[in-house]
């Protein structure tokens, strides 16, 4: 661990800590319908939107109605996105002439599911696949929609804890409008200007044909990048305008843009913890949740940095210096930008997988086994270490319900949380969400690691890309695991495991050694993302509706306190233990075996 790496982690965390309360207070006012400084500027637009769409913002919805509205909103957006992607060849703002050849049906389905679920998994190279119109309308607008959905679901769950003997948990349509106008829009407006200031392009020009110093031809992609970049990071979406994502100098040109990017990723998830405390009437409750997230974030950041800075025994045997000196970074620099180094790269990798963002400024596939295990395990926690906008908080509250249930068993009392009894229904719904996520990851990973598809016949097409079958497996079969990964053995398994963990957790980052753009992976990946998003949200909305109907219970001497350090550590323990018990066999087959092979002197 170097002083530079330690300083970056500590400084970043202190800045996030400083903005958490202001951000949380502001969002609490927005979703309570109170006046803010933005109300004076955009209040007319909010009222006009309600009038145009026939929305009564005061109408309270039951949790079932809220869930149906969310599903209809998301499904409509997904269908429109699919149609726009398939029709991009006849739509405007397409100077490169991209059409259905670049966006076949299976890839359009995967992409529409990806952006609807706030995953932004990209089985394609954006600069050679998507028109400007597809980027701006089909995808970037979905970055706003899916981010807003995540935030308002978290607010609805908070209302479940905050309300007493209430029938409803808020109005979905009013929440979406307020979130978009007062939270996302102002930050994105000024954030896009900051990115432009730092050198991120924002234009509609054709790609530039240039010649290199050696005289070779080069095509320089550009476009409306800054406007997509800000919502990609603020909304924890992660989908890049370029295939290299935030390692590309047009998306992330400077150290300041890199740091600003990282602030955007955690700003809303961290702020929502304070919003939670504010809305339930006890800010200490919010800080307890924040502290649990912070402990796991800092632990992962330090472990990942230490592992990458240490390098590998194979580099030592090759007489490659792995110690940092004044003129070289040392450690494992494979897959990392020299301008970011190991410190900024590992911090970015930890934050983006904590927050279900998926943006990357280095290639996780090139990390050491333990360095790669950190982002993988972040995904497997259910993305609750700050997590995606909204999704991190409601995921952590799911674990809080499990934690107080365990605490109740230990002290022999009916578990309580935020003055509400946690009973059979709430525990069942929380465990249902946990089991759905685990099954989504493990079943798809197991099937994809072992399934063998015929070389010939109708099912052979499942393993093709643009009409060409991938080589791999035996002479008679092609297997998705062996035919579409660049690595075999433990690392090849990790690539598949990471893919489904990322898609289920709605993250979008990848161990890029796997080729996902085949009919098989596009289809099953699309379903994995939809399951991971919506089959987790519905049980949590059910919990919110149940809690909202309950009366508050006054604290007594037997009440287990949930606003102190003891509960924070219990919450951390529950998250880590559930993750370890559920996924240890997969981790053992992947990065742990790979780590042992590395120290045995074997290549991987």
Estimated share of beta-strand residues: under 5%
Cα-atom Rg, whole angstroms? 24 Å
- Described by the principal axes of the CA atoms, the overall outline is globular
Class computed from helices, strands and strand pairing: mainly alpha
| Count of DSSP-assigned helices | 18
Distance between the termini: 24 Å
Largest sheet: 2 strands, antiparallel
**Average pLDDT across residues?**
89
Beta strand count: 8
Question: Helicity level, as a percent range?
Answer: 55-70%
What characteristics describe this protein?
single chain, 604 residues, mainly alpha, 8 strands, 3% strand
Describe the structure.
This protein has helices spanning about 5-30, 40-55, 65-85, 105-115, 130-160, 170-200, 225-235, 255-280, 285-310, 315, 340-355, 370-380, 390-410, 425-450, 480-485, 490-505, 520-550, 565-600, and strands at about 210, 215-220, 415, 420, 455, 465, 470, 475-480. It has a domain at about 395-600. Helices cover about 60% and strands about 5% of the residues. It is mainly α and about 600 residues long. Helix 14 packs antiparallel against helix 16 (about 490-505). A hairpin with a 5-residue loop joins strand 1 and strand 2. The protein has a two-stranded antiparallel ribbon with strand order 1-2. A two-stranded antiparallel ribbon has the order 3-4. Strands 5-8 form a two-stranded antiparallel ribbon. It is globular. It has 18 helices and 8 strands.
